[in-house]
Amino acid sequence: MLNIVLFGPPGAGKGTQSQKLIARYNLVHLSTGDLLRAQIAQGTDLGIRAKKLMDEGLLVPDEVVIGMIDNALQDNPNAGGFIFDGFPRTVPQARSLDELLAKHDEKINCMIALEVGEEELVKRLLERGKTSGRPDDQDESKIRRRVTVYNTETAQVAGYYAEQKKFHALNGIGEIESIFGQICGLIDKHKPAAAETPAEATKEVKA
Ligand SMILES: Nc1ncnc2c1ncn2[C@@H]1O[C@H](COP(=O)(O)OP(=O)(O)O)[C@@H](O)[C@H]1O
């Protein structure tokens, strides 16, 4: 399996690049933002509680998103791998993700961070807010709060993956296709050599 964390502040382009990556590598896209918005649309208790926080640009509690990811991993036993988008957003979430993947004998292969400065993020999100219908995209002060939450609570997740030598940063400003090409270059360098594993395993069994 190929498991990638796509990382970066709100508006960095994670969703756009995820769509292209799932097609190229046959992966399942797990966006905690999308999963939460699905809960809101269904009017579940979880959705009602999460909506208040999301509309204010604050994070929902770790155990809520960790539970959703746990369920999603179990719901996709035959996936070729996953793109985690918008998750993990805190160090406890990153630790939990490692534990959940370990239960399935899996791990994160690489984490790719898209770097974009605050003024560009605000511009992009206000533009997205014109059509996305997302309350958190329509108010500049809420957008800036999301960027601040990213800088104070989420940015340290990069250090967690750097310690595991899995952190890679790319400039998120540029042509979508060019950024996609750079992401694919990194993935191709770090993806597991699928063909080698079974052959090695067979050799060991014989020996
Ligand atoms: N992993 C997470 N942990 C906590 N809250 C989350 C997480 N993922 C999404 N959220 C909530 O959902 C909101 C929207 O997330 P998302 O769709 O990823 O948007 P964006 O990255 O564009 O801000 C966040 O501001 C936060 O309130």
From TrEMBL:
Keywords: ATP-binding, Cytoplasm, Kinase, Nucleotide biosynthesis, Nucleotide-binding, Transferase
Pfam families: ADK (PF00406)
Gene3D superfamilies: P-loop containing nucleotide triphosphate hydrolases
PROSITE patterns hit by this protein: ADENYLATE_KINASE
SUPFAM superfamilies named in the record: P-loop containing nucleoside triphosphate hydrolases (SSF52540)
EC number of the protein: 2.7.4.3
Location of region: NMP: 31-60
Catalysed reactions, as listed in the record: AMP + ATP = 2 ADP
Pathway(s) per entry: Purine metabolism; AMP biosynthesis via salvage pathway; AMP from ADP: step 1/1
Superkingdom of source: Bacteria
The keyword Transmembrane is annotated on this UniProt entry: no
Subunit record text: Monomer.
Its job: Catalyzes the reversible transfer of the terminal phosphate group between ATP and AMP. Plays an important role in cellular energy homeostasis and in adenine nucleotide metabolism.
Protein name: Adenylate kinase
Phylogenetic classification of the source organism: Bacteria, Pseudomonadati, Bacteroidota, Cytophagia, Cytophagales
The encoding gene: adk
